[in-house]
Design goal:
Length: about 400
């Protein structure tokens, strides 16, 4: 789909074509619709439907009050923020992290953009798993690099380290992996990540160039059923671990996150300097208020059991209706199969009834659709009968 078809654009061709790669999701996210309508059921993205947590607001309110004239000045990242992040993240991931190896960012997407800028040269290849998060390709293209896809397994979205190995060429510079995975909700198990690490070690030696692993861990704290997050950074030194408060605190427009390097990162002294300089030059540093609140924000999470209960209710109800779907291990999303192969047509039908979801085409998996569990319980109640009507309508149409 050409997002800009028929429009005269006085912008870089480069920008138009990289953004065009996200056309199928932008079409859904940017189309006019009345999400404020009382009947609207917003399953589109991980967006809050209820007021932000009072503890979160309190932390921001405290952080807004300056304690010195330089409080709102330019400057290096606030030391207590990187120290708090290194210790809390290190404990969660089982790594000894140095505060100097933390770069504060404006969320995971800003961390990714920063790393692409700092690590990728024009003509490099970046391997990404498919289904990918819908803006990876745009970011790779914006770096004048070439995206190379490796499919996750059809059955359960597992990583395929052998396929990654085959995709690597002398031009490969980075591999993006996303765990817990959006949209499937898979947490990659240790054996798959260890195998991936072995593949990347061998391939880096073979091509004579360090292949960086960009581990997008935006959902690392939205875990269900007592599961644990495992970072590939434990097994592969050249890993950047990207984290975000967007999901953990469900306040994604208030931008903050970080990228962390493990102590085993090769050449980390130089990388520290380059990333710090690049983050200052590109404006990916979070605002003072977010930096100052960070030690407190690190301790907060949204009500994950509430999301888990919503997952259980929707999975049980949708399976009863005849949808085929896995129960996610983590993250915000259900990713059921659609009763027809054209998921866009199916999602358009739901949208006409004010049930807003994303079609699998946005994730390179037609035949599926994505629903965010951040919808309110009231939205779920209103949507369930419409989802039931949808499966009957489309199954009947297919049978005739
Ligand atoms: C897999 C993945 N990576 C990155 C992001 C971007 O996160 P942030 O808001 O922290 O930039 C998202 C947001 O939906 C995501 O799902």
């Amino acid at each position: 789909m050409d997002l800009f078809a028929g429009k005269h654009l006085d912008v870089a061709r480069h920008a138009a074509s990289s953004l065009g790669s996200a056309a199928s999701v932008l079409r859904f996210l940017m189309q006019p619709r009345d999400l404020a309508h009382p009947d609207a059921c917003d399953f589109l993205a991980g967006n809050p439907q209820e007021m932000a947590m009072p503890e979160y607001i309190d932390a921001l309110q405290r952080a807004v009050v300056p304690d010195s004239p330089s409080y709102y000045g330019y400057g290096p990242p606030w030391g207590p923020a990187t120290t708090a992040v290194a210790s809390a993240l290190g404990e969660r991931l089982g790594l000894e992290l140095d505060p100097q190896d933390i770069v504060l960012t404006r969320g995971a997407s800003s961390g990714l953009a920063l790393l692409m800028h700092a690590l990728i040269d024009p003509g490099d290849q970046v391997v990404m798993m498919s289904p990918p998060w819908f803006f990876y390709e745009a970011m790779v293209l914006a770096a004048s690099a070439e995206p190379v896809r490796v499919p996750l397994s059809e059955a359960d979205f597992s990583l395929d380290p052998d396929a990654v190995e085959q995709a690597i060429t002398p031009r490969t510079r980075a591999v993006i992996v996303n765990t817990p995975h959006n949209p499937s909700g898979r947490i990659y198990p240790e054996d798959q990540l260890r195998n991936l690490a072995l593949v990347l070690e061998k391939a880096s030696a073979r091509i004579g160039r360090r292949i960086y692993l960009l581990s997008d861990e935006a959902y690392a704290r939205i875990l269900f059923d007592g599961r644990q997050m495992i970072t590939p950074g434990r097994f592969y030194g050249a890993t950047f671990m990207l984290h975000s408060y967007s999901k953990t605190l469900l306040a994604p427009s208030q931008r903050a996150g970080y990228s962390a390097m493990p102590p085993s990162m090769p050449g980390r002294e130089q990388l520290r300097f380059v990333l710090m300089a690049a983050s200052l030059a590109s404006g990916t540093v979070p605002d003072t208020v977010m930096q100052r609140a960070m030690p407190e924000l690190e301790k907060l999470t949204i009500d994950i059991p509430a999301i888990e209960r919503r997952r259980d209710r929707m999975v049980a109800e949708m399976r009863r209706m005849g949808y085929s779907l896995a129960s996610p291990e983590a993250g915000f999303y259900l990713f059921p199969r659609t009763p027809i192969s054209d998921a866009t047509e199916f999602c358009d039908w739901l949208a006409e009834r004010r049930i807003y979801t994303l079609p699998g085409e946005a994730f390179e998996r037609p035949g599926h659709f994505r629903l965010s569990l951040t919808a309110s319980d009231a939205m779920v109640e209103r949507a369930l009968p419409v989802l039931e009507e949808a499966i009957h309508t489309f199954s009947a149409a297919r049978a005739t």
